Amino acid sequence: MPYPKRTAALASAAALAGSAVLSAAPAAHADVVDVNYRCQTPIGVKSAVSPIDIKGVESGGGYRITMSWQKGVSSSPVELGKGAMSPSATIKLGGADSGTLAVSGPANSAAIPADTPIKISDLSGTYTPKRTGKVTFTAGTLTIKALGTTTNCTPTNNPGASLTLDVTAPGGTSSGGSSSGGASSGGSSSGGSSSSGGTSSSASGGSATGGQLPQTGPEDSAVALGTLGGTVLLAGAAGALWLTRRNQPARR
């Protein structure tokens, strides 16, 4: 094969292999979404905007979901010492699934000065699909607990999904419900079959009653032939004996 043709063939093969790998990869799409938070703090309402990033990594039969804040939110009028602030949040599920996913993370690893936006550590949780399909993950409520107080920060700008995953429910949970319905329907159908079986049994009983009548099948013919054959055999033997005795010379 000439060199240019060989190069073109190799390039085509590489392109096909690459497209096969891409088509086999699971569908996932992530966006960094700006979230406008309205935080109800012990000293009043505060607002903050932070870009939110949500990532998902397969873990066992589910996904490890991690939520990240790229800017700090809310603030404290007093310094928060190391480990004084504990964050958690919810992620709204949409698309093929619904509900919320709870995520949490470690307390602050360093002191947070007073009147300084609070940087939230990465929060994680495990998501187990309940249905198969594309599931969206959108930032929900952020909760900050510190010094015996609780601050709730709620998105006000109806943010879009930060992550979309094409998931598969383990064991086909969603289809299992349909299967269960089918089994229930099958039970009903089976009941009909049972009734039908009763009819069949009744018919069989009629046949059994008919079995008490005299039989006129092949067995009777066999018995008749056997009787006839025995009669012929005896008659032949008697005839042969009579001829033998007749042909013997008379004794003097």
Name the average pLDDT: 71
Strand content: 25-35%
Helix percentage: 25-40%
Q: Outline the low-pLDDT stretches.
A: 14-26, 174-252
Rg value: 45 Å
Query: Biggest sheet: strands, sense, closure?
Result: 10 strands, antiparallel
Distance between the termini: 122 Å
Number of strands: 10
Structure annotation, total helices:
3
**Structural class assignment:** alpha+beta
Overall 3D shape: elongated
Helix-strand string:
HEEEEEEEEEEHH
Description:
By secondary structure, this protein is α+β, with helices and mostly antiparallel strands. The protein is 36% helix and 33% strand. The protein has helices at residues 3-24, 173-210, 218-247; strands spanning 28-30, 33-41, 44-59, 62-69, 85-95, 99-104, 123-127, 133-146, 149-155, 163-167. Strands 1, 2, 3, 4, 5, 6, 7, 8, 9 and 10 form a ten-stranded antiparallel beta sheet that branches. The longest helix is centred in the last third of the chain and has 38 residues, at 173-210. The termini are far apart.
Task: Kindly list the characteristics that best describe this protein.
252 residues; alpha+beta; 3 helices; 10 strands; 33% strand; elongated
Topology:
Elements: H1 3-24, E1 28-30, E2 33-41, E3 44-59, E4 62-69, E5 85-95, E6 99-104, E7 123-127, E8 133-146, E9 149-155, E10 163-167, H2 173-210, H3 218-247
